[in-house]
């Protein structure tokens, strides 16, 4: 099921400016033909080759329609980059949604996921789509959550230059990105350590993720100690006030973890919602986020609208 978009406006493409740390030219997307899911299609029920092909095509199409700035650097590694997609006109104090891609911490790139920004732009929201260091590059936990935190720090210090509100940041992610979004939002003490008000991080949207990584056997967490430390379920301390957890009804691997995660957050007086997307698989759920008519997008939009107001 290809991601849908509700973008109606044709806008002149905005060229990349020189603001903050960024590259002089647009970096190409990571070559999807080298991804494990693409090289070993017989091991997967989902056709990931067609997914990445469509995702790149739809991202390219969106870039022809929306104002955007590409390859904004939040660190020195080539993967420590994010793309910004802006609403029409001259946005000011727009809420900011940071999206983190999936791929098992070993594949994926921001250039393949810009399509998620379409419906957010329709509703006046600035979308940041970030890459982060991967295990295929030799980077294991905690490199990835450190990258997400650095991206949020960059947004806090720079997104106002693009019309975003640095005091209203939301983080969502799919699969591996869901784990990172959850990890970032379950304990905001790191923001205080970074000299950033904890209330700038308003909500998270983990989609199709596992939130207890013990005995997971992932390259991302090569030791039992790392598995425990990387499990958002195990270190809920100072969580964000609002959470939407989504999972496909056929994703048996993630249903139990998603329910338990929401139960634990609700016990911390968090407005935590579980949305089970009927009939949807691991590919469908990220497509739903990019569909302005989907239950998932509407639920996320309601959260952003409610929790962008005032100081929480």
Helices and strands in order, then pairings?
Blueprint: H1 36-39, H2 48-63, E1 68-73, E2 81-85, E3 94-100, H3 117-122, E4 126-130, H4 143-158, E5 164-174, H5 176-185, H6 189-193, E6 201-207, H7 224-229, E7 242-248, H8 252-266, E8 271-277, H9 282-289, H10 295-307
Name some characteristics of this structure.
globular; alpha/beta; eight-stranded mixed beta sheet; 312 residues; disordered N terminus; 10 helices
Q: Beta-sheet strand percentage?
A: 15-25%
Number of strands: 8
Strand order of the largest sheet: 1-2-4-3-5-6-7-8
What is the helical fraction, as a range of percent? 25-40%
Question: Could you describe the largest sheet, including whether it forms a barrel?
Answer: 8 strands, mixed
- Low-confidence stretches at least 5 residues in length (pLDDT < 50)? 1-25
Mean pLDDT: 91
Order of helices and strands: HHEEEHEHEHHEHEHEHH
The helix/strand class is alpha/beta
Number of helices: 10
Oligomer: single chain
Distance between the termini: 38 Å
Broad shape? globular
Whole-number radius of gyration? 18 Å
